[in-house]
Write a structure and sequence with these properties.
Elements: E1 20-27, E2 37-46, E3 49-57, H1 66-72, H2 76-79, H3 85-96, E4 101-103, H4 106-115, E5 126-128, H5 129-136, H6 144-151, H7 161-182, E6 196-200, E7 206-210, H8 212-215, E8 230-234, H9 242-251, E9 255-257, E10 266-269, H10 274-279, H11 284-294, E11 300-303, H12 304-311
Parallel strand pairs: 1-4, 4-5, 8-9, 8-10, 10-11
Antiparallel strand pairs: 1-2, 2-3, 6-7
Length: about 325
């Protein structure tokens, strides 16, 4: 099994291309490596036109919760006789091939594809229509339905993989035209390597630390997911100490917090505790997040792995 930092991932592009694969996944939750894929959808586009599609429901190992069934419209009965991920993933990857992929909030889908297999990389470069929409559309929110409404795209159904993949392709085509109309080029500056380094302890386990050489020259990236956000950590962290986690957040332009408040953006739960917190009941900090969200906060609970994905570098 590959370690976290050994997995290869493509780069987010700002290119205007006419040949690609638009894709979308439906999942049992939001944590790659913990939650499961329950539907694949993809559309092969050539010359800006859809020429072939892929759609397949998947039977998960642990079932679909009532909340996810409500959101996606996919029930346990619907997937009862469907193939498992081990059968579907290779067929899906063959369909995608070496194409650049297009997706809305692409990191979500790419991360799930990487962690759907113990040994798979996803080196395909990708175009994130969420990132494009944030640059080109003046909206309060840039979720898929918000962008669809702004661009007046007709949609038959939301939260089904193929429908959303086709919608994403149409969003990309319309945003490309908007670039031409504006007479500008969309450029994403390469992200600076975060001031962190990976070492190993005496047992060969990965340890994440501040790289002082990089930190001395590093300017926090305002487009990073860390910048300007407040992070609180709870549970046993596997890759760094609590103090080191706080130092990394601060070095990348975020704010480390000791307790959950209305100003908290993320509660990061250690990898060893995250699955138990979901199955055996929520911790005091998680319950406080639930309470604060009920009265207007917008705090996200994520695993240590998700935080690592926020700070990882390419290459």
């Amino acid at each position: 099994m590959k370690g976290f930092f050994d997995r290869k991932k493509g780069k987010s592009l700002s290119d205007r291309i006419d040949d690609y694969v638009a894709l979308d996944l439906e999942t049992t939750g939001f944590e790659a490596g913990i939650d499961e894929i329950i539907e694949f959808g993809a559309a092969r586009v050539r010359g800006g036109e859809v020429v072939e599609t892929f759609q397949q429901l998947v039977k998960p190992q642990y079932g679909i919760s009532p909340e996810i069934a409500r959101i996606t419209g996919i029930t346990n009965d619907m997937v009862a006789d469907c193939p498992r991920i081990e059968e579907v993933l290779p067929r899906f990857l063959d369909f995608v091939g070496d194409d650049v992929v297009v997706a809305h909030n692409a990191n979500f889908d790419v991360n799930f594809l990487i962690y759907a297999s113990d040994d798979y990389d996803f080196p395909n470069d990708f175009i994130d229509t969420l990132r494009w929409a944030r640059r080109l559309l003046k909206l309060d929110h840039h979720r898929l339905p918000d962008v669809v409404a702004a661009l007046e795209i007709p949609v038959s159904e939301h939260h089904r993989a193929l429908s959303d993949a086709l919608t994403c392709a149409e969003i990309y085509e319309r945003l490309k035209k908007k670039l031409v109309e504006l007479g500008v080029e969309l450029m994403f500056a390469p992200s600076a390597r975060p001031p962190i380094k990976r070492t190993v302890d005496s047992f060969g386990r990965p340890v994440i630390e501040i790289d002082e050489t990089i930190a001395a020259k590093y300017t926090p990236d305002p487009e990073s997911q860390i910048y300007g956000k407040t992070f609180v950590f709870t549970g046993a962290l596997s890759c760094f100490t609590r103090d080191m986690a706080h130092a990394i957040v601060a070095a990348m332009g975020g704010t480390p917090g000791k307790g959950v408040t209305m100003k908290t953006d993320y509660l990061v739960v250690g990898n060893m505790d995250f699955p138990r917190s979901v199955t055996d009941g929520r911790s005091a900090k998680m319950k406080k997040v639930d309470h604060l969200n009920e009265i207007g906060a917008k705090i996200k609970i994520i695993s240590e792995n998700s935080f690592l994905e926020m700070i990882r570098w390419e290459g």
